[in-house]
């Protein structure tokens, strides 16, 4: 018989113990550490905290938005798939499958995720926005905010890839104060829907008093 750990509770516990041992978390607040631990667990890379930035009031803004049951908006379906349904207080929205979004994206030769962002306008004020894949969606969001669209409470910027993602996230970080935004940003080419959803799951867990 191969000797390996089988007990799910012990596996769960030891995952968190190893993350705390391996990840550099000391210079983050306790609440920020909770978010990072879930992100590291989802991503499998203890170096990830070196690439995550929190704006000054990101956690408190998230808490207020969750308490008020504000809208949740996301860019790609993977984000929704990874969100823990047992923690959600409402159905997240994306509009990716909307017929007009699909049609306009094709005719304008732009991404569906970017096109769908225009449908966010009525739901954007004080919402929590999860960008887990599309740099173009994040760019379009920033354009809309500069045009006067209402600001969300929090943007989780975790777009990934080698085109658009890194500069879009850098622009978010550089302009978040000017735009009146709180944000959590995964810098560089790292990212993905799993990371955006993991951060959101952590925020929802903390709101319910669940800490690891």
Automatic annotation (TrEMBL):
<keyword id="KW-0169">Cobalamin biosynthesis</keyword>
<dbReference type="InterPro" id="IPR036588">
    <property type="entry name" value="CobH/CbiC_sf"/>
</dbReference>
<dbReference type="Pfam" id="PF02570">
    <property type="entry name" value="CbiC"/>
</dbReference>
<comment type="pathway">
    <text>Cofactor biosynthesis; adenosylcobalamin biosynthesis.</text>
</comment>
<protein>
    <submittedName>
        <fullName>Precorrin-8X methylmutase</fullName>
    </submittedName>
</protein>
<dbReference type="InterPro" id="IPR003722">
    <property type="entry name" value="Cbl_synth_CobH/CbiC"/>
</dbReference>
<comment type="similarity">
    <text>Belongs to the CobH/CbiC family.</text>
</comment>
<keyword id="KW-0413">Isomerase</keyword>
<feature type="domain" description="Cobalamin biosynthesis precorrin-8X methylmutase CobH/CbiC">
    <location>
        <begin position="11"/>
        <end position="205"/>
    </location>
</feature>
């Amino acid at each position: 018989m191969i000797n390996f750990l089988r007990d799910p509770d012990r596996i769960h516990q030891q995952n968190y113990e190893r993350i705390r041992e391996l990840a550099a978390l000391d210079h983050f607040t306790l609440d920020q550490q909770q978010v990072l631990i879930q992100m590291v667990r989802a991503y499998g890379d203890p170096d990830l905290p070196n690439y995550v930035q929190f704006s000054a009031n990101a956690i408190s803004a998230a808490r207020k938005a969750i308490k008020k049951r504000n809208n949740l908006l996301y860019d790609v379906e993977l984000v929704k798939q990874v969100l823990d349904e047992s923690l959600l207080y409402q159905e997240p929205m994306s509009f990716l499958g909307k017929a007009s979004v699909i049609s306009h994206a094709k005719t304008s030769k732009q991404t569906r995720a970017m096109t769908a962002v225009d449908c966010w306008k009525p739901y954007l004020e004080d919402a929590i926005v999860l960008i887990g894949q599309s740099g173009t969606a994040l760019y379009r969001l920033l354009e809309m905010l500069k045009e006067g669209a209402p600001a969300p409470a929090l943007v989780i910027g975790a777009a990934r890839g080698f085109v658009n993602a890194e500069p879009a996230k850098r622009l978010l970080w550089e302009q978040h104060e000017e735009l009146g935004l709180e944000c959590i940003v995964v810098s560089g080419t790292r990212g993905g829907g799993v990371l955006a959803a993991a951060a959101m799951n952590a925020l929802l867990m903390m709101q319910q008093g669940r800490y690891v």
